[in-house]
Each structure stands twice: as C-alpha cells, then as structure tokens.
Design goal:
By secondary structure, the protein is α+β, with helices and mostly antiparallel strands. Helix content is 30%, strand content 18%. It has three domains: 221 residues, P-loop containing nucleotide triphosphate hydrolases (Rossmann fold), CATH 3.40.50; 73 residues, no CATH class; 236 residues, Nucleotidyltransferase, domain 5, CATH 3.30.420.240.
Length: 736
C-alpha cells in the first residue's frame, strides 16, 4: 500500500516580492485574504510558508525565535515549583513585588505562545505549532499525563486555526480513526477559548447525553483544574462540576501589564462564560448563541437522532445574520451507514472545500478534513512525532523509548488479511482505522444485493493502483469540429469520461452504412449501456446524472474480454451535450447502445442523426412482438419486473465471476464509483443508482442471447381420415 501525504508546500503561490513588501510593513492580517486566496493564521503581520491541506491554502507565520530543546525535539517544560503552590490570582496578589518581578517574563512568554504559537527545532527542522496546539501540549492534562507531539496533530491544529480565521467557515468536520486523541484535543480547545472569552457560551454534544457528560467531567473539567493560575479564572460553584463550568474572573487580564498595576483584582469585571453539555437531540442548543460547539462522535448518531437535522438547527447558533460568530469542532469515526453513518457521510461530503456556493461557503458551511490512520496510530509514532510507515532497517524508538520494529502499513495490512473471511469484521476494522475515505464509510454486508465481499476486494485492489495510470480521464470530439466525420479521444484531466482501454486504430470509428442508416462495425466486440435523462435542468439543480458504461465481450479481435472499459457519470449543462457525448463514444468504439426507453429523447436524437442502427432493440422480444415506438427508436422499458430482475441478475453474475479475487488474481474492473454504486444498489429504489442501471444494461447488451425468446413446441393430433380396425376375434371391428 502506498504512503499518503497530508499537505504540500506551495511555492510562489504569492509572488515573493509581494510577500516581502507586506512582511516589511507587517501588513498581513489574520483571516481570509481574498486577493491571494489564502487563509492567514499568522498574528504577527508577517507570513512564511504556505501549506495546502486538503484544498485549503494556509499561510503560516514567518519563522522567528526558534526554540531548541536539548533533545532536538518537542519537550514538555516543567511548571516551576515556585508557582505551583499559587492556586489563584488572589494568592498571587499577596506575594511581594520582588517575587512577582522574577516571573513576569515567564508569564509574558506563556501568554505570547498561547496567542501566536511558537517555533521549535524538531530533528533540526524549524517547526511551527499554533497557540492552541501549544496549550494542548504544554498545559492540557490527559489520561496518560502529558500529550506527545505528533505531526498529524500539528497539521490538524493548523487546519483548525485556518477554520477559525476564515470568515467563510463554520468550523471543521473531521473524519478520524479510533483513539486519535480528538476528544482530548477538542476538550483542550474548549477550555483554552473559554478562559479568554467574555460573555460567551461553549457547548458539547456527543452520540448520547451520557457520552457528552463523560467528556465534560473526565476531560474538560480536569484540563481546566490543572491550568496554571495565570491562565485559570476563578470559577463559580463546585471544583468538579457535573453539568456546567462557569468562569468569573478573566485570566486574560493577568498579563504583565495588568499584574504590574495596583488595580484591585476584586474590581475586575467577570468573564460570564460557561461550558456545558446537552443531551443528544435534533434541537440541542436551539436558540442559543455559542462561541464554540464541540461535536464528538457525530458519525454515531442513531435513530431517532439525526446529525443532519441537528446541524441545521445548531448552525444558526453560530451566526448573527450572515456573520459567523462561533465555530464548530466536529470529529468522529463512522458507524455503518444505517446506524448514523449515512447522515455523517453526507455532512462530510457536503463540507468539501473545493465545492463552494456564490457566498464562498461549502454546502454545510464546515470544512472537511480526513487524516488516514497510518498518520495517527498509537505505537507507530516515533519520538519526533512522525509515523513509521514502513518497517525500519534500523532501530526506531517511540516517545516512551519503546522500540518500533514494524511499519504501520504492514501492521494494518496484516490485520486486514486476518479478517478476509469475516467481511463484517473487516468492514468494522476499516471504519475504525481507515486509510481512505471509502474505508471510513464501509457498510455492512447484509445490506447489499450483490456479493459485497468481492466488491470490496476489488475496491481495495484498485486503491493499491491509485497512483498508476490504469484509468485515463478525457473527452471525445469530432475531428476538426466536423460532425458525423471521425471521432477522436483527447486525454483531459477535466474530461467527463473515464477510460481504461482504447481500441487499436483499425477498430476505431468502424461504421457500416445500409441505405440512410448507420450501424456499428464492432457489435461483435462489445456494447454500451446507458441511463439517460430528458430535461436539461431541474428546479433544485439536483437532477440525476446521465450514465454510460462500455463493456467488451469475447471475440477474435484484439479486445480484452468481459472488461468494463468506459465509465461516464455526469450531467452536462444541457441534455443535448450529454446525447452528443454518448453518440461520439458509440461511434469511436463502433459499438451499439442499449438504453431505457422511458426517457426517449436520447434515442430520438440517435434516430434523427441517422444512427438508429446503433440503438439496440430489447433482447427479450422478437421483432414482430415489438411496439410501434420500440420499432422506431429501440430501447428497453424499465417498468417490467422481469427486466428489473434480469438486470440485477446480470450484475450479480458478473460480480461473482469477474470481481475481486479470481483464479487469475484480481478482476480488471477499475471504476470505483461504479463499484461503490453496486455495493449500495437497491432494486426497489433504482433511481439513485445511475451507474448500476447503465452498467447492468451494458451486461445485458453483451449477453443478449441469454434473453432471446425461444419458440415453444406445441404438439397437436391430426386426423388423416384413416380408419383403424381391431383384428382380434373371428371378424374385424372398426375402432371408433
């Protein structure tokens, strides 16, 4: 399995002259810079490197004041013993001035790092962490004591800081692996923000009320209690509250400047800030104003609760009019699709940074982030915080000095191999420790009409091939723009076609002309299946896609047998563009098309252009049994139950014989989108499964002989007028 990178450094995204000029005058402002399409997370007015993390451009602060720890890596700094005994700012007030002056610089530095972050040398490489990351590493007590530095967490915090800085974002939707530390990181951020915010409210939700309460009592409260006195406001009520944490005296006031004055602490106005949790429900926190909402285990909300409904409600708690005033930190692994996973999956994909509306926001308002398990798996992180992907050639030690003698990818693969005969167990492992987004949303096998084990085997095999050029994107066009001439295939990363095989030159554009009608010259080599649409646009803009699949069959030509070579799932701006795409594909490959005729515009388009010969008739009826319309344009109806069953059976047979592990290795079906559609196919609700419809029709077209009706033999007795006699006895008697 391949290694995956989480970010890239953008070179010259902004011209160096511009960067240097604005750095000189410290003109870079914290937040989204529309002119340069970058989110600035620097609070110093200067920027350095620009990271791209899953589509989001993030400008880091300029490198300065790099700290070098003795160990050449991140190192927790012990809290000075002299300050440990000070429990509150009121205790501090009683200490003599000369004692206070000894610690002003220390306290100032901590506040500065909390606000701006810091640079430190990690294995001789200057490394930046955000202020929130620093507070987590230095001042957040978790179940194992002090957190270890991890590169994956550093990138997580950079992304989160960008979400906070970006005025277009409501926060993050984080797809994670189990035991990634998200609950503690979210709890640390809650306390960090709450202790410097006035008149604010912070909320916690989880997959259930008891889970939210446990996060509050076991994580949030202990982190708050263990803050140093200069960060910790005085809280109202119990030391360890069960429902609400309320802050009265603001820690933000106690900087060097404030501590050096003679202002009475009792005169300082309170924060009036609270942290609490709510029971899980669609209307949790409805009508309330929130500074931060933590959504833990949001992929595990089971019926009747619905994360989508809840987010629609709580989203309004984070804004005033169009202005976003609060953020959401959402993170989870995913349950099986029918146990809350489907809703979380939709929310995650609705948070795609690369798909925005006219206001610059994603459909959900959140920004999605996925970190593969190999980046964040306990026991396979070295002492510098980097994952050990592959089995090392020399000894590598973890943060506690324990040796790491195996790579995490090899370990993961061994676990997967051990579960090959337990598909549901394997899918559960994938969901908990995903290496891809597809792994994270694996469903249970019982829900599939087809052999899900073989489908997922093929998907996994294809994932291994992701960095190879098995599938080529491209488009078809007429030579020199002249219609009905010669069709060319042009590789294009933005093309609507996915291609795995191109026929040799002698098989391209084979057309047979009979009279005024054109016929495909390679109908013995393969065929296409198509799920068409008639209307260019729909009211809500969410019309189903048009789908086209090409499949070969066994022949004496230089053609790979039983191979899906073309996938097209798209909805161009007009229906005519789709029709022309389909026509050009059929002509280029010289193969016929089997299409459902309930949406006949495509078939009429073929007939009008002189290509009726490319449209196949339904294979289950002879010519004289076809309707007038079927004789005119061809096609096959989708209303017949027999057709539906034959269609599903065709896919089922193909999956069993050609998908996943086969006698010769693995199948050669490389279209992931189609495989995933097969996995979810519902015969009682076929409208959502464009890819399954068209691929099944391609299978029926290539195996039309299976559906050809056979004439039944009927035997009738014929009277030839010949009388029969019984010759027993003395005289013959006629048999009546």
């Amino acid at each position: 399995m391949y290694e995956q990178t989480l970010y890239s450094v953008l070179k010259d995204h902004i011209k160096p002259k511009i960067v240097n000029r604005l750095n000189k005058y410290k003109k870079w402002e914290y937040g989204y810079n529309k002119e340069h399409d970058v989110v600035v997370i620097s609070k110093t007015g200067q920027i350095g490197e620009i990271y791209n993390i899953q589509g989001l451009n993030i400008a880091l602060p300029k490198k300065e004041n790099v700290v070098s720890f003795e160990s050449n890596k991140w190192q927790y700094t012990q809290y000075p013993k002299e300050l440990k005994k000070i429990q509150s700012v009121f205790d501090w007030d009683d200490y003599p001035t000369n004692f206070k002056e000894e610690w002003y610089d220390y306290i100032d530095t901590e506040f500065k790092r909390r606000d701006e972050g810091m640079w430190f040398n990690n294995k001789d490489v200057p490394t930046y962490i955000t202020g929130t990351n620093y507070m987590y590493l230095q001042w957040s007590k978790i179940d194992v004591g002090q957190p270890d530095f991890r590169e994956s967490n550093r990138l997580f915090y950079l992304f989160w800081e960008a979400c906070k800085a970006d005025v277009r974002s409501y926060g993050m939707c984080y797809l994670k692996n189990r035991r990634s530390g998200f609950s503690f990181m979210a709890s640390g951020e809650t306390v960090n923000q709450a202790t410097i915010s006035t008149d604010s409210r912070f909320g916690i939700l989880s997959k259930s009320g008891p889970d939210a309460k446990k996060m509050f009592t076991d994580k949030v409260v202990p982190i708050s209690i263990n803050y140093p006195f200069f960060f910790k406001p005085i809280q109202d009520g119990m030391d360890r509250p069960k429902t609400e944490l309320a802050y009265r005296v603001p820690a933000s006031k106690f900087t060097r400047k404030k501590l050096d004055t003679n202002e009475k602490l009792q005169e300082i106005s309170g924060l009036d800030t609270t942290i609490d949790w709510k029971n899980t429900g669609d209307n949790s926190y409805d009508g309330e104003k929130l500074k931060l909402l933590v959504h833990d285990e949001s992929g595990k909300w089971e019926r009747p609760t619905n994360i989508l409904n809840n987010w629609r409600v709580t989203k309004t708690c984070l804004r005033l009019g169009s202005r976003i005033i609060g953020k959401c930190m959402m993170g989870s692994t995913s349950n099986a699709l029918d146990k809350g996973g489907e809703n979380f999956k939709k929310l995650y994909y609705d948070s795609n940074i690369n798909e925005r509306n006219a206001n610059g926001q994603t459909r959900s308002g959140l920004y999605s982030l996925f970190i593969p398990m190999e980046w964040n798996y306990e026991g396979y992180i070295d002492s510098y915080g980097f994952p050990v992907f592959n089995t090392p050639g020399k000894e590598i030690k973890g943060p506690q000095g324990d040796p790491i003698d195996q790579g995490v990818i090899e370990y993961w693969q061994n676990e997967v191999d051990g579960l090959k005969n337990d598909q549901d167990g394997l899918n559960e492992y994938y969901r908990q420790f995903p290496r891809t987004e597809q792994h994270a949303f694996r469903d249970e096998t019982k829900q599939s009409l087809f052999n899900l084990t073989k489908i997922y085997e093929q998907i996994d095999y294809n994932e291994d091939l992701r960095n190879t050029s098995v599938v080529t994107k491209g488009s078809f066009q007429w030579e020199n723009g002249v219609k009905d001439s010669k069709v060319l295939f042009i590789p294009n990363k933005d093309g609507r076609f996915n291609i795995t095989w191109v026929p040799p030159t002698n098989l391209q554009n084979r057309v047979i002309i009979k009279g005024n009608t054109k016929y495909p010259g390679n109908d013995h080599c393969g065929a296409f299946g198509c799920d068409s649409y008639d209307i260019s646009g729909t009211v809500d803009g969410r019309g189903s896609n048009g789908a086209l699949h090409g499949l070969t069959k066994f022949s004496m030509e230089d053609v790979p047998p039983n191979h899906f070579f073309l996938e097209y799932i798209a909805r161009p701006q007009t229906a005519e563009m789709f029709f022309e795409d389909v026509l050009m594909a059929c002509i280029f490959y010289g193969m016929p098309l089997l299409c459902e005729n309930n949406k006949p515009r495509l078939l009429y388009y073929f007939r009008r252009r002189g290509y009726r010969g490319y449209s196949m008739n339904r294979p289950d009826k002879v010519w004289n049994k076809l309707s007038v319309t079927e004789k005119e344009i061809g096609g096959i109806p989708n209303s017949s139950e027999d057709i539906k069953q034959a269609h599903a059976s065709a896919i089922e047979t193909y999956v069993d014989t050609n998908i996943g592990k086969t006698e010769g290795g693995y199948g050669d079906m490389y279209f992931q989108r189609t495989l995933e559609d097969w996995a979810k196919f519902n015969i009682n609700n076929r409208t959502k499964h464009d890819a399954s419809i068209s691929s099944g029709l391609a299978l029926m077209a290539c195996n039309k002989n299976r559906y050809t009706p056979t004439a039944k033999k009927e035997y009738k007795s014929i009277n030839l007028g010949i009388k029969k006699y019984d010759n027993t006895g003395a005289s013959s008697k006629m048999i009546k």
